[in-house]
């Protein structure tokens, strides 16, 4: 009977979600890591790469959510974080760090954390570090022949930015280490960041409280409410296992799915009492919820529009330089973010199937110039596959090369209003809710 109700539940979701359960399960297997490759460029045109902007999700990490109390935490899994990072503080932030001096290392006290072992919540694992080493190597191998990586000294040619999160910082460091090996590029590389009050690489309710209202509006629709009602038996079942203090109203199936996924990526068993059937139900419902919230393009400019506009401003400056015969500096950008960076970003690029972004997901936004005509083209690669953004290319020449002006004209509809910050405050209710960064 339970399996029949599960099938009926997913049948209902398939009416609104882009993929069925049968299609979702194989994709679930790739959750643990995206392909570390860049889509090959196939074209008869003679092109020169002027600029590339790489946006990534951090690598594999420990769970980010508390699904149980410290007094009854499961003791079946021990998280061992062998990844270490040494730091040397300096009073001269704009100068090279001195070659000598004491090193400091951050370490979580074993046995004192919610997670059994020596790891904190959301900490990058050695596996996650390796994922970004591999991705950085793939980026290096693809772009090195174009000349974009060494067209100028690193401090002029490279701009790196990360959210103010330890796992995104370390992912950026691992990635850049492979893209710009220190033996070849010895220069210091600055990782720029913004604090959580001003970060715009995800739908930040600190910047824009109105985003909370937008999420609440989406979650109040009959479709969403029906989906939540269908999940009530599962929430009750989870609460009876002792999670979330045994209160079905507190149960977050997304948090449980995330914790189970983190375990699965390390070949650990699912949480005690959680069956494979329960896990699949909560995981698919969580992915559906994210798809349903973020796929509404009419709201996308509020979620990610200001960051998307920054990307296009970078591209616009390069396009202007190219028309004047000047070099684009910086030519290489990297942005290290979260899953909530990718969902709305893919939405504004009008990607139809918004599947959950695996660890170390990556998107490359390239600006090319045709050597003879000087025409400019935009190409986008996502996890090793080209994206035909805005359907502006028929791909007849082998790759989805979108004329720059066509791309820009389609993209600017997702820029935020000119008085974005003012409207964010004026339209917001008094209630602000934050979504967990994953």
Structure description:
- Strand 7 and strand 8 form a beta hairpin.
- This protein is an alpha/beta fold and 438 residues long.
- The chain is globular, with a radius of gyration of 23 Å.
- The protein contains 14 helices and ten strands.
- The strands form two sheets. Strands 1, 4, 5, 6, 7, 8, 9 and 10 form an eight-stranded mixed β-sheet that branches. Strands 2-3 form a two-stranded antiparallel sheet.
- It has a domain at 2-29 and 210-294.
- The chain has helices at 2-14, 21-28, 126-143, 154-157, 166-179, 210-219, 222-230, 232-240, 253-264, 276-294, 300-323, 339-348, 404-411, 420-426, and strands at 47-57, 86-87, 104-105, 158-162, 191-192, 332-337, 362-370, 376-382, 385-387, 402-403.
- Helix 1 runs parallel beside helix 10.
What can be said about this structure in brief?
The protein contains 14 helices and ten strands. With 438 residues, it is of the alpha/beta class.
Kindly list the characteristics that best describe this protein:
alpha/beta; 438 residues; eight-stranded mixed sheet; disordered N terminus
User: How big is the Rg?
Assistant: 23 Å
Helix-strand sequence: HHEEEHHEHEHHHHHHEHEEEEHH
Task: Give the termini distance in whole angstroms.
Answer: 34 Å
Largest sheet: 8 strands, mixed
Lay out the secondary structure.
Layout: H1 2-14, H2 21-28, E1 47-57, E2 86-87, E3 104-105, H3 126-143, H4 154-157, E4 158-162, H5 166-179, E5 191-192, H6 210-219, H7 222-230, H8 232-240, H9 253-264, H10 276-294, H11 300-323, E6 332-337, H12 339-348, E7 362-370, E8 376-382, E9 385-387, E10 402-403, H13 404-411, H14 420-426
Parallel strand pairs: 1-6, 4-5, 4-6
Antiparallel strand pairs: 1-7, 2-3, 7-8, 8-9, 8-10
Protein name: Acid phosphatase
GO molecular function: phosphatase activity
Pfam family, one: His_Phos_2
